[in-house]
């Protein structure tokens, strides 16, 4: 890493930007003020390529040759393919709306409560800086999108958007994933210690934020540490992932079942396995038509860093009966892991990774990144081309004005 970074720094002033015209395309779209084109040919050949021990993208993002970390952050919409210009539109915005010194309260479970135009999210469970896990459960917070909208043309609006603590009652133990569910919010909770099992828990999104457990076992057996969930837009079943991050973070015992993707039918109570064969199944989502399921596998982080494991997104075809078929490797991310995953209304696939939100077209071509320069574990589309991106100790508000950057938000399960 050291040699790579020094190369980038010494040539920093040589001119970072590749003009849009150098892309092999007939597109006439201008590159917006907050965007820059990254020509992948420009780093196909590096003067020296570091070893995996020197650079493995686990602790610092990739800085292409002749770019700098500051330059990458300055224009955070990175265009890897012209197709991205149609998504971001002529005037995308990118604003830091909140920040904490150390506590990673902007982690995952990013969910839009449409009725009040609010966004809920949760703290990183098991992170030493949060003091959560075995001793203290991770907290839930929310913001008002009206306040975020008002500052969207600023780059830094820290202090201008209130971050409100949400006291769920009874408290949801170490929540990590969330989705809209029948006008309420459904969380995937990782559990706490050996005695409080992982569970799917519904929360009333208004005071008193009362909660009800929907599912906490499979035929009497504890799940490992439920991570993320998604509702299929056609059959309305809840599909959820169960890796062992509770064990990795020392707040859950050794696993009692293999890591896999589950399916819950809340009309019959049936719990079935949807897919296995993962190291650490993590984010999950569906294409807007429900034809495809996307599951991220963040196996490189299990017992520490295991670089030969997946850092990948798999796509399945969802059969009319809701079963998964035809597992296909969809993408492998360059920087750290693909965590939360969501699709837009056109079926493009977005995932939070080590340096921002990556965007692939439906065939798995990387077309752009919304660059945070730090881990962006999850994010959510919140209507009208708006996005909220969680960056652990930073919260971002993004607007895409291309009209195709709309999330695949399905009202039918509201
Ligand atoms: C990087 O900058 C150097 C120094 O100006 C220049 O010679 C080289 O062509 C540049 N490389 C790329 C890939 O842009
Ligand atoms: C990954 O890179 C970091 C330096 O950024 C290094 O400290 C670590 O040992 C590397 N890990 C492996 C497994 O190579
Ligand atoms: C819980 O608290 C005890 C006592 O302060 C501490 O030793 C332990 O490391 C904590 N465990 C976790 C998982 O944070
Ligand atoms: C919250 O409490 C109200 C009033 O008792 C009840 O109708 C509702 O179902 C509860 N919601 C949840 C998610 O527990």
TrEMBL record:
Domain SMP-30/Gluconolactonase/LRE-like region: 168-383
Key words of the record: Signal
Signal peptide stretch: 1-20
Coiled-coil residue windows: none
Domain of life: Eukaryota
Pfam family, one: SGL
Protein's recorded name: SMP-30/Gluconolactonase/LRE-like region domain-containing protein
């Amino acid at each position: 890493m050291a040699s790579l970074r020094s190369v980038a720094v010494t040539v920093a002033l040589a001119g970072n930007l590749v003009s849009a015209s150098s892309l092999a395309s007939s597109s006439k779209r201008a590159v917006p003020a907050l965007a820059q084109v990254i020509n992948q040919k420009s780093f196909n050949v590096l003067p020296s390529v570091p070893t995996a021990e020197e650079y493995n993208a686990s602790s610092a993002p990739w800085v292409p040759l002749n770019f700098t970390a500051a330059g990458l952050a300055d224009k955070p919409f990175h265009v890897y393919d012209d197709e991205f210009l149609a998504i971001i539109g002529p005037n995308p915005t990118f604003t830091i709306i909140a920040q904490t010194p150390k506590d990673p309260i902007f982690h995952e479970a990013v969910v839009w409560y449409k009725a009040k135009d609010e966004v809920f999210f949760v703290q990183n469970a098991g992170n030493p800086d949060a003091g959560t896990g075995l001793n203290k459960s991770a907290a839930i917070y929310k913001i008002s999108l009206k306040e975020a909208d008002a500052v969207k043309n600023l780059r830094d609006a820290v202090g201008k958007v209130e971050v409100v603590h949400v006291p769920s009652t009874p408290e949801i133990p170490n929540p990590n994933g969330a989705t809209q569910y029948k006008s309420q919010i459904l969380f995937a909770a990782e559990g706490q210690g050996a005695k409080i099992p992982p569970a799917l828990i519904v929360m009333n999104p208004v005071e008193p934020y009362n909660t009800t457990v929907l599912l906490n076992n499979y035929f009497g057996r504890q799940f490992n540490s439920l991570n993320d969930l998604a509702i299929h837009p056609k059959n309305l079943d809840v599909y959820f992932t169960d890796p062992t991050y509770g064990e990795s973070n020392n707040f859950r015992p050794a696993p009692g079942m293999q890591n896999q993707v589950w399916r819950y039918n809340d009309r019959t109570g049936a719990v079935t396995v949807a897919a296995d064969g993962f190291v650490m199944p993590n984010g999950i989502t569906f294409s807007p038509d429900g034809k495809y399921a996307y599951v991220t596998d963040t196996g490189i982080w299990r017992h520490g860093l295991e670089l030969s494991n997946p850092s990948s997104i798999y796509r399945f075809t969802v059969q009319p009966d809701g079963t998964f078929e035809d597992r296909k490797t969809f993408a492998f991310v360059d920087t750290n892991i693909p965590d939360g995953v969501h699709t837009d209304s056109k079926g493009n696939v977005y995932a939070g990774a080590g340096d921002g939100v990556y965007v692939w077209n439906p065939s798995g071509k990387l077309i752009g990144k919304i660059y945070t320069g730090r881990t962006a574990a999850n994010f959510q589309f919140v209507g009208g081309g708006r996005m909220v991106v969680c960056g652990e100790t930073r919260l971002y508000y993004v607007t895409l004005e291309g009209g195709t950057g709309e999330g695949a938000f399905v009202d039918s399960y509201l």
